[in-house]
Specification:
- The protein is of the alpha+beta class.
- About 25% of the residues lie in helices and about 45% in strands.
- Strands 1, 2, 3, 4, 5, 6, 7, 8, 9, 10, 11 and 12 form a twelve-stranded antiparallel sheet that branches.
Length: about 325
């Protein structure tokens, strides 16, 4: 009897010691991957506004700047974007010309003109058209950079998963190191450093701060894991100094899940582009996701080719208060 009791106590002590063993960096990130995979599915129940400010700058001069609001709507496989508002300006011959539409001859709508004066409108349109010819590179840079970094149709938040090693797929090529505990954005977090397994790979390295209770990212910062090859920098005159990204995450209350759904709350980057020894620009992008609304699926009867059928229609519902 005494031996049996001693064996039970020994087993209990062993289990307690095992339970108290600190988690490794790999174990923490495996839990993050599981939660991120689940969060990606739950994000289909939200629509929200994506506010972005994108700048192309040469030296101290802003060559082109656009501030946009997009409505982000979830789909079965990703997300769609609808432009709600655009305020832009391009630098041309020592002054700025304002506009409020995406680039394209059919969409030229300058904003700095007297709408009661047809001659003023024509003059403003011609000025913007000439400015487009002269500043095409900067407008293209601004719009292509914003779309390229925030419009991944396979992502339910628009931000490409390739930028951050959060999901199971992205983590398989990374090495993780636990640096300790830190307070980040008011939350107790694990501080984890990551880098590619392949030292010759030009990928992302950086730091992630992971909530110790939720195992969700709170802040992630990345940078290129190594410089571009010398042949590219020296012979072709091309470089991307400072390229990297920062994302912050926050929970959104959910009526469709037992807990909150974590979303990227902000996303940003600031880096330089140097091409062919003659072209140099600094690109600045800051994005904030806001005005979250939850959706549920309703049924609507419609007629298609003479026959009636039922389709699913997403409807917004009030997001519960925290």
């Amino acid at each position: 009897m005494l031996l049996r009791a001693f064996a039970s106590l020994s087993l209990f002590a062993a289990l307690s010691a095992a339970a108290q063993q600190p988690l490794t960096a790999d174990e923490i990130m495996q839990r993050v991957a599981t939660n991120q995979d689940a969060a990606a599915a739950m994000r289909t129940h939200f629509v929200y506004t994506q506010h972005a400010r994108t700048i192309s700058r040469k030296g101290k001069t802003i060559r082109c700047e656009e501030t946009t609001d997009y409505r982000i709507t979830p789909t079965a496989t990703g997300s769609d974007k609808q432009l709600l508002k655009l305020d832009g300006r391009v630098f041309y011959k020592g002054k700025y010309i304002a506009y409020d539409s995406l680039k394209g001859p059919a969409d030229i709508r300058p904003t700095n003109y007297d709408d009661k004066d047809d001659a003023s409108l024509l003059h403003a349109r011609e000025a913007l058209k000439k400015a487009d010819d002269d500043t095409e590179t900067d407008r293209n840079l601004v719009e292509n950079m914003r779309d390229g970094l925030t419009s991944d149709k396979k992502s339910r938040d628009g931000v490409s998963a390739n930028l951050f090693p959060l999901t199971s797929k992205e983590q398989k090529d990374m090495i993780f190191h636990l640096l300790g505990h830190e307070l980040k954005n008011g939350r107790d977090t694990f501080h984890i450093h990551f880098e590619p397994k392949d030292k010759d790979d030009i990928g992302w390295k950086g730091d992630a701060w992971i909530d110790v209770n939720e195992f969700q990212p709170v802040v992630i910062q990345t940078a290129l894991s190594r410089q571009l090859p010398f042949a590219v920098r020296g012979l072709l005159g091309t470089n991307l100094p400072g390229l990297g990204f920062t994302a912050t995450y926050a929970p959104q209350p959910s009526a469709n899940a037992p807990g909150a759904v974590w979303f990227p709350e902000s996303f940003g980057t600031e880096f330089k582009i140097k091409l062919l020894f003659v072209f140099s620009r600094e690109i600045i992008l800051s994005v904030a996701n806001r005005d979250f609304e939850q959706t549920h699926t309703g049924a609507r009867i419609v007629e298609v080719d003479g026959a009636t059928t039922s389709i699913d229609v997403p409807k917004t519902v009030e997001t519960p208060k925290p």
